[in-house]
Amino acid sequence: MTTENIRTYDVIVIGAGPVGENVAERTVAAGLSTVVVESELVGGDCSYWACEPSKALLRPVLFRADAAHVPGLDPAVEGPLNVEAVLAHRDHMSGDWKDDGQVEWLKSAGIELLRGHGRLVGEREVSVKTSDGEPVHLRARHAVALCTGSRAALPGLHGIEELRPWTSREATSARKPPGRLVIVGAGVVGVEMATAWQALGSQVTLLARQGGLLPRMEPFAGEMVTERLREAGADVRFGVSVTAAERTDGGELRVTLSNGARLAADEILFAIGRAPRSEDIGLAAVGLAAGDWLTTDDSLTVTAVPGNWLYAVGDVNHRALYTHQGKYQARIAGAVIAARARGEGLDTSRWGPHRSTADTEAVPGVVFTDPEVASVGLTVREAERTGLAIDVIDQEIGELAGALQYRPDYRGTARLVIDRDRRTVVGATFVGPGVAELLYSATVAITGEVPVDRLWHAVPAFPTISEVWLRLLEKGARR
């Protein structure tokens, strides 16, 4: 290899999604030369096949559901959605699957981009097969950050390749609604895509192996989403899985379920979980197993590799599979890399700048269904599993004046999980139209460990849905 094909930087980042971009932004801001290696589109799954396109599909659905129940607006929103306009907006929000703007941002931030597939080949060394086929060898003075994310997991179903199944990528980028769509999976992707495509004209059948939707959340969340999906016309079935499927010469899918039932469909979406994108990034060169999730400590340093030079940030470390949590980790990792490059010690106190604490104590998440679901911290089940003594406070959101202004038939529930001994909130769940905007206040309450008695003095404006906090605290004060 010629010397011009060997390049040295302070930091090498593999993966230019939101996580890799944020790591690079932090290290460049700290004065460290940084290169980002990306084999696909700069901006990652979130920009093109996940967060942005899925919310562009869902927003019209949710807005129409709200408007259809507001006096004076309801006649104006009758009839089907303009599918062509919704999909055009989805395309716009995804940058028409072009990354020119993202690339320009990298340049403006002083971050160098190398397009190609990067693999570890030794300590602080990465080999890149560039998009033009020319190999480039990279060396890092200080750190390599693996920000390769995750991909949709597929079941070990016989002949699955011939099915041409959808994953979250196809579900968010499809050019038209399928006539009949079978969705396998009860989690966030499954219920969001069921909500979107049912409203856009597909006949959706949602299959859940468990006894309810959104099994990791409070049970009432899944129950309310199930009820609304069925009201919208979706066929929601519990306690079943797919045992066999085939695509006919004519393109139709024939699906056999574990209870013996058979379905005919045009497309099938598997939304059964995520797998790490780590199978082809050279992990064996540093003593790790290809295809595994990468275990890190709270500084995002890969624990099985000595020398404190290899980091795994975002989905690939399996700590918290959300874009916002990955970006949070990126801020921590960037600070850690900069501190070590300067020869400084790390502040790994519980909420210190070099410790990724929020991955375990206060992970917020929103499910953009009708109704919305927003949660952070512990559920009742999780709190009881840890042996925590808790008080559980529930409040019907539809009893609030602010909620009735939102829509007269508002239906929703809020729950706080309170540590009985410390008198602080350790978990919160909100279900109902517009509740996503309640989540940050709950996240602050949990991470700040704000005593319930102090929260009593945080006065919500009237008439808003945030007044639910006052009603919850009133009930809590009587415990």
TrEMBL record:
Disulfide bonds join 46-51. Residues 363-469 form the Pyridine nucleotide-disulphide oxidoreductase dimerisation domain. Residues 9-324 form the FAD/NAD(P)-binding domain. Transmembrane segments: none annotated. Its cofactor is FAD. One of its GO terms (biological process) is 2-oxoglutarate metabolic process. Belongs to the class-I pyridine nucleotide-disulfide oxidoreductase family. This is Pyridine nucleotide-disulfide oxidoreductase. It comes from Streptomyces dioscori.
